[in-house]
Amino acid sequence: MIDKLTSALQFQQQALALRQQRQEVLASNIANADTPHYKAQDFDFAAALKRATTAQSAPTKLAVTHAGHLQMSPSQPLVALQYRIPAQSRLDGNTVDMDLERTQFLNNSLRYQADIQFMDDRISGLRKAMQPEQ
């Protein structure tokens, strides 16, 4: 029973984890808007989600060879960050375009909220399905 619930919610879990990671990347770009030589980064959400959902069939365990190594959570998919190509170069070498970053940040925030609402609706539906008829 738990396996079926987990598989029913796994796609949304992956999407939320990727949205959260993207929000952190965009926030980092905004925070470093005035840092000389900072290169803005982002990742392709659709490609990362596709890669995460195809890899979710078998969880991978990482080998820990030293006690100081950090454990990686299997719910956090790995993403390949890419540098953004600036529309206009700046003298200090910074590639952050604040208008673009704010737009992407807001877009990602709205989609994150929509994903949470969708997951909440899904859980409510599953909960109702498990309730005995009265």
Task: Explain what you see.
It holds the Pfam family Flg_bb_rod. Belongs to the flagella basal body rod proteins family. It is found in: Bacterial flagellum basal body. One of its GO terms (biological process) is bacterial-type flagellum-dependent cell motility. It comes from Pseudidiomarina indica. The structure is a single chain. The radius of gyration is 19 Å and the shape is extended. The protein has one domain (about 1-55, about 75-85, about 90-130). It contains 3 helices and 2 strands; from the N terminus they run αβαβα. The longest helix is centred in the C-terminal third of the chain and has 33 residues, at about 100-130. Helices cover about 55% and strands about 5% of the residues. With about 130 residues, the chain is mainly α. Helix 1 (about 1-30) packs antiparallel against helix 2 and helix 1 (about 1-30) packs antiparallel against helix 3 (about 100-130). It has helices at about 1-30, 45-55, 100-130, and strands at about 40, 80-85. The chain has a two-stranded antiparallel ribbon with strand order 1-2.
- Mean pLDDT, rounded to whole units? 85
Helical proportion? 40-55%
User: How many β-strands, per DSSP?
Assistant: 2
Strand order of the largest sheet: 1-2
What is the radius of gyration?
Answer: 19 Å
Strand content: under 5%
Low-confidence stretches: none
Provide the domain count: 1
* Order of helix and strand elements from N to C terminus: HEHEH
Domain Flagellar basal body rod protein N-terminal: 9-39
Family: Belongs to the flagella basal body rod proteins family.
Pfam families: Flg_bb_rod
InterPro entries: Flag_bb_rod_N, Flagellar_basal_body_rod_CS, FlgB
